[in-house]
Inverse folding.
């Protein structure tokens, strides 16, 4: 398994990515030592995750050395350009062909890596996904979701979180399927409850899109559709997977993010409200494309990078992409 | 000035309405006493607010007596039926012609009262408004807004809050105008900043509706349009009037309401987060109809009823309806 990492994405690049890789390798070492102690059969060297790092070679090398990171399973692919956070995605990818994102997607498309992680320009990551590895056949609209803090202490999964501002009912049904597989396989929620975000409880309520999506969701096989949920249910455990178009989803996500800032400024320290610190969760996958692509928050720190590698590894191990294909 | 009140609406009818009237009259008495003390010219008896109460006469009379309420400016109009909270609005109004809501709208339409307040069935209040006193000529979609707690301690005004789930761009431009007048005249915010709820900051971002509404809002005269705002800006003081279609607005409102429940359950007592207790604000007006109509929360208590009478009085005194007509 070979995971590609864009070292130049995010506000603290490449330092936090390097530190995150350090945390990931330490965690892996601890797990191996434990297995050895318990005399369990360990994974062979072949099965180990290889990391391919894209970015400024000199900077990365010096940081890896500084942080005393074991280079055994690391390969650096030098790139000379960086796509900035606010650049136009399509234009930037076209013009900066030696950028860490462009080269990273090149490796992914050629099968030299199995997944790609970046905390860089979200738009460029979306465009890169759609043009290099492409949407899975039958998926109309790949989507990005968002973790949602819930009162029961377990994260929910909201999608779409802003990539698809206008949607058709069929898109929401596919989001439900994609979200179900992700919640089940990666978030470890068995038979996740799927709720349609709406403005009333009963079938027939809502705008035209929600009204049309409800019967489609009822018919969708392989999802545990529980009906409409409302704004007041988002932070409860009513539904594990919450579907809506990306306009409402993005408003909910950014509103939820602002709650963390507000509680911080008001000096509120509460287990539940601390869950609104979204940076801790690492990145979110682009669901519906042919290989695992994980996009991190621009302000991702070391822990977020470690979590992104863990999520990616899990997506590969569980063959999330294969499961999606099998459902189409 | 004669304000009609549905005494049978809300979860605690008619008790909380009676207590609210009591609070309102006490507050008025205190203001009068103060004026007398300061030797200011007081309002003559003619200028005083008369209250017309619709509902079960025996119950209301006994409660008024029990709470020692001065009956000088109160008139009871006995009604024998009640529209329940979950009844179908149009059907209920048609079948229950002697309900407090139906009779209340009858008085309003005939000019026997100048405004109508209810904490009852929201749908019936909307239908009653549209059929009895009707939308102001030129208003495509009357709307209901919602108060939004903001970090600066002053309420913002979000509209539409759920009545118009699907909207055209022109609807949002009218909401901006209606919201501006309400925020200026009733919430005392001079030259209120109007923001378009969207999923990005720049013009051109958003779903098709938001993209089309932006240039219209720029052109709308008499509003202080500041551009797009995002989910993270809702609880800040970025915009005073926040416009969107009623789907997103309703999700925001119910999500905000749930924050109060969550902080209560987590035993968080904070000045800002206490603002999320929506019942304290009394009701919201149906904006865009020919007379002031105020709809309260089902769980409205005495203070909410007092606030509803105050808001209604202010809307009449400031001639909010006349100002809206002048802008069309």
């Amino acid at each position: 398994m070979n995971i590609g990492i864009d070292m130049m994405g995010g506000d603290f690049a490449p330092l936090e990515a390097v530190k995150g890789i350090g945390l990931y390798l330490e965690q892996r070492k601890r797990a191996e030592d434990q297995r050895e102690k318990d005399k369990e059969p360990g994974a062979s060297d072949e099965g180990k995750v290889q990391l391919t790092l894209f970015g400024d070679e000199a900077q990365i090398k010096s940081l890896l050395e500084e942080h005393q990171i074991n280079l055994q399973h690391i390969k650096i692919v030098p790139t000379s350009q960086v796509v900035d956070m606010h650049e136009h995605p399509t234009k930037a990818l076209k013009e900066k062909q030696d950028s860490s994102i462009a080269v990273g997607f090149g490796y992914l498309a050629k099968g030299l890596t199995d997944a790609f992680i970046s905390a860089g320009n979200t738009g460029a990551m979306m465009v890169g996904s759609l043009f290099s590895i492409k949407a899975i056949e039958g998926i109309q609209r790949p989507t990005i979701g968002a973790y949602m803090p819930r009162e029961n202490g377990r994260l929910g999964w909201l999608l779409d979180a802003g990539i698809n501002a206008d949607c058709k009912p069929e898109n929401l049904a596919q989001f439900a399927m994609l979200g179900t597989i992700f919640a089940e396989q990666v978030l470890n929620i068995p038979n996740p409850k799927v709720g349609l975000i709406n403005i009333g409880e009963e079938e027939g309520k809502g705008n035209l899109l929600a009204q049309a999506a409800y019967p489609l969701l009822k018919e969708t096989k392989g999802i545990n559709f529980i009906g409409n949920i409302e704004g007041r249910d988002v932070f409860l455990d009513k539904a594990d997977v919450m579907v809506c178009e990306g306009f409402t989803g993005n408003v909910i996500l950014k509103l939820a993010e602002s709650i963390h800032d507000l509680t911080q400024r008001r000096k509120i320290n509460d287990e539940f409200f601390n869950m609104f610190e979204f940076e801790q969760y690492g990145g979110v996958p682009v669901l519906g494309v042919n290989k695992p692509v994980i996009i991190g928050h621009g302000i991702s720190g070391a822990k977020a990078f470690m979590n992104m590698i863990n999520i990616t590894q899990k997506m590969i191990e569980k063959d999330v992409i294969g499961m999606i294909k099998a459902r189409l």
